[in-house]
């Protein structure tokens, strides 16, 4: 985390140092989230990208941000989010997934830094001549980190339990994971102070364990009962289903595709405008000084 902050500071310094005029805004975000992984879909096997989404599993994404516009068409943003992701096999109509009977919930705490490019700008929305409302559309990309801590629910074990610590597939994976956020958005600025926006963002990750399912069933014969129960949850659900992959070494997930997650959020922010101290020039207004008449001292 310390190295990430150092990189961000080095990236921001030249932007702050050489920008004479700036416009900053800070605000809040509220919206929904979705994920792409081993859970979802309907009656078919895994489908590409959004075809495997289960819209009923949309959850929330809350956050805050600070944005610094260094040029008319370029800005930098630091954003933090609390994102909940969720999925369950019992919501699918695919017999194999129903029989697997796995589920998860993951509360992600995300922090990212990104560049925004404003590719479309209207100075006077509605052409009223008063210039009280302007609009900008932008694309963005950057880098960040998030906490990965999937949980599984079981009445027998008192509710939600940490799956990462159980190592259900015999694999150790880190709690802090890198991500690459990118997407599009837009915002209206009212009276140069109030800003209302919307954006859609996707996150490319480098882990297949956001949902704690990736490879094959692991031999947990020497593990405690709780680990065994969470690792293999086939309990006769859909008795007409032939249990093709519920034994050690059989398929539990698909490691060839990493997990993704997405957010769509509305925002409100307050704009601060000014001039940067790093580039203020020292000036002397001679005309403002009154010339004093020189007189000879009288003794």
Write the layout of secondary structure elements.
Layout: H1 2-17, E1 21-36, E2 59-71, E3 74-88, H2 95-100, E4 103-122, E5 133-147, E6 151-154, E7 159-162, H3 163-166, E8 176-190, E9 194-205, H4 225-231, E10 260-275
Antiparallel strand pairs: 1-2, 1-10, 2-3, 3-4, 4-5, 5-8, 6-7, 8-9, 9-10
Can you describe this structure?
With 299 residues, the protein is mostly beta strands. 11% of the residues lie in helices and 43% in strands.
Number of helices: 4
Rg from Cα: 27 Å
Average pLDDT, to the nearest integer? 83
Class per helix and strand makeup: mainly beta
Under the CATH scheme, which architecture would be assigned?
A: Beta Barrel
Low-confidence stretches: 12-21, 276-299
H-E order: HEEEHEEEEHEEHE
């Amino acid at each position: 985390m310390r190295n990430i902050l150092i990189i961000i500071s080095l990236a921001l310094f030249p932007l702050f140092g050489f920008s004479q005029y700036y416009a900053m805004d800070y605000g809040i975000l509220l919206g929904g989230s979705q994920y792409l992984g081993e859970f979802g879909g309907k009656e078919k096997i895994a489908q590409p990208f959004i075809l495997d989404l289960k819209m009923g599993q949309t959850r929330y994404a809350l956050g805050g941000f600070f944005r610094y516009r260094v040029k008319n068409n370029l800005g930098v943003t630091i954003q933090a989010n609390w994102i909940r992701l969720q999925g369950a096999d019992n919501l699918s109509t695919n017999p194999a997934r129903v029989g697997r009977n796995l589920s998860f919930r993951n509360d992600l705490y995300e922090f990212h830094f990104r560049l925004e490019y404003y590719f479309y700008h209207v100075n006077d929305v509605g052409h009223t001549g008063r210039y009280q409302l302007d609009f900008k559309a932008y694309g963005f990309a950057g880098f960040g980190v998030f906490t990965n801590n999937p949980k599984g629910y079981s009445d027998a074990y008192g509710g939600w339990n940490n799956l990462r610590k159980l190592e259900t597939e015999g694999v150790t994976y880190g709690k802090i994971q890198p991500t690459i956020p990118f997407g599009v958005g837009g915002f209206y600025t009212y009276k140069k102070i109030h800003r209302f926006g919307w954006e859609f963002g996707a996150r490319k990750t480098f882990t297949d364990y956001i949902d704690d399912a990736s490879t094959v069933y692991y031999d947990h014969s020497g593990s405690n009962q709780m680990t065994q129960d969470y690792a293999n949850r086939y309990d006769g659900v859909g008795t007409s289903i032939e249990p093709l992959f519920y034994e050690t070494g059989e398929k539990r997930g698909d490691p060839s595709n990493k997990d993704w997650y997405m957010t769509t959020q509305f925002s409100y922010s307050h704009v601060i405008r000014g001039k940067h101290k790093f580039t203020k020039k020292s000036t002397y207004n001679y005309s403002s000084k009154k010339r004093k008449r020189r007189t000879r001292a009288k003794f």
